[in-house]
């Protein structure tokens, strides 16, 4: 028998209908804060019962749950026979609610930091998450060291100046590939899409730097670097692929805390390259190995919102790490993507 956190969350029913998944932070009497994952019918039942109460429910009884302990963290997950009860539903919840009401100081023992803290994952943890059947598009924080910049493929792409999606060459102009973009045609601007080799104490892998993440590491915009190259090599044609610049090579050996995103392409096994959306400020403490179970709850498009988003996407929206076809220059005239001298 567990009690809900003393703050009423908002349930996104539209998202619940799609994900069939809801996560709730709970704490047993004198126990730790845990993450309870409710799936399918259990999630639907929770939503209906929660909405039926005029005041925020404070007691939750869930039967037939599966318990796991990974990385020292306890997590609970519903199964097919799971049933959900709240404050006044059954005698056990009524009794617990009465006890809790007579001991109001208990509700003050839950720390908000425990609930809303950012999830830090190792590369190995992220790879493990990608193999889970329940995995959804997710953001993680991961501290890793850059081992190399991958050569032999484009480190940038040509983006729409409006939405930063992929731009392709049309008959007379560049065309944005994002159907929701208000720009039918665009001048085009070079954006980072550089693949780097990284490692930590657990594993080696590949990250792909997009947009602002590349600028945060190099201090130079991709458009500046591309323009500078063509200005210094005027004999190169528009189909020429600009080699990896020194600004990118210089980041090898650096250790950073990355905000990364995994998507359906990662789950399907099409690629293990992980997209970096931003570089986070350094911290004095070293990263700890996160629990895969904890990561599911904090990052899988939760229907119950218990805190702010862990880390949002980069302003560069056009490319993800798995779309190899978007690396090409598409024969764009380099004069159209020059952003000024460096």
Automatic annotation (TrEMBL):
Residue ranges, compositional bias (Basic and acidic residues): 316-342
Species: Brassica napus
Gene3D superfamilies (alphabetical): Nucleic acid-binding proteins
Domain Replication factor A C-terminal: 139-282
Name this polypeptide is given: (rape) hypothetical protein
Endpoints of the signal sequence: none
Residue ranges of the region described as Disordered: 303-342
InterPro entries in UniProt: NA-bd_OB-fold, Rep_factor-A_C
């Amino acid at each position: 028998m567990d009690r809900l956190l003393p703050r009423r969350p908002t349930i996104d029913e539209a998202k619940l209908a799609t994900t069939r998944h809801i996560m709730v932070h709970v704490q047993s009497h004198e126990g730790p804060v845990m993450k309870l994952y409710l799936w399918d019918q259990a999630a639907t039942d929770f939503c209906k019962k929660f909405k039926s109460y005029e005041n925020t429910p404070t007691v939750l009884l869930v039967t037939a749950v599966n318990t796991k302990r990974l990385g020292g963290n306890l997590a609970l997950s519903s199964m097919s026979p799971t049933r959900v009860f709240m404050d006044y539903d059954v005698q056990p919840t009524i009794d617990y609610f009465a006890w809790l009401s007579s001991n109001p100081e208990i509700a003050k023992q839950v720390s908000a930091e425990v609930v809303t803290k950012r999830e830090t994952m190792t590369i190995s943890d992220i790879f493990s998450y990608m193999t889970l059947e329940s995995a959804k598009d997710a953001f993680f924080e991961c501290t890793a060291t850059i081992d190399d910049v991958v050569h032999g493929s484009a480190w940038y792409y040509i983006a729409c100046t409006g939405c930063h999606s992929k731009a392709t060459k049309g008959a007379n102009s560049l065309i944005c590939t994002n159907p929701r973009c208000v720009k039918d045609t665009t001048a085009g601007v070079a954006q980072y899409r550089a693949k780097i080799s990284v490692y930590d104490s657990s594993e080696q892998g590949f990250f792909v730097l997009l947009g602002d993440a590349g600028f945060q590491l190099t201090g130079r915009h991709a458009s500046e670097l591309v323009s500078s190259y063509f200005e210094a090599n005027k004999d190169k044609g528009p189909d020429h692929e600009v080699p990896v610049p020194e600004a990118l090579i210089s980041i090898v050996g650096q250790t950073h805390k990355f905000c990364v995103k995994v998507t359906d392409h990662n789950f399907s096994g099409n690629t293990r390259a992980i997209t970096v959306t931003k570089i986070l400020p350094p911290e004095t403490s070293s990263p700890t190995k996160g629990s895969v179970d904890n990561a599911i709850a904090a990052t899988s498009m939760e229907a119950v919102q218990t805190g702010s988003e862990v880390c949002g996407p980069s302003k560069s929206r056009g490319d993800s790490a798995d779309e190899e076809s978007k690396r090409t220059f598409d024969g764009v005239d380099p004069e159209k993507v020059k952003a000024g001298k460096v």
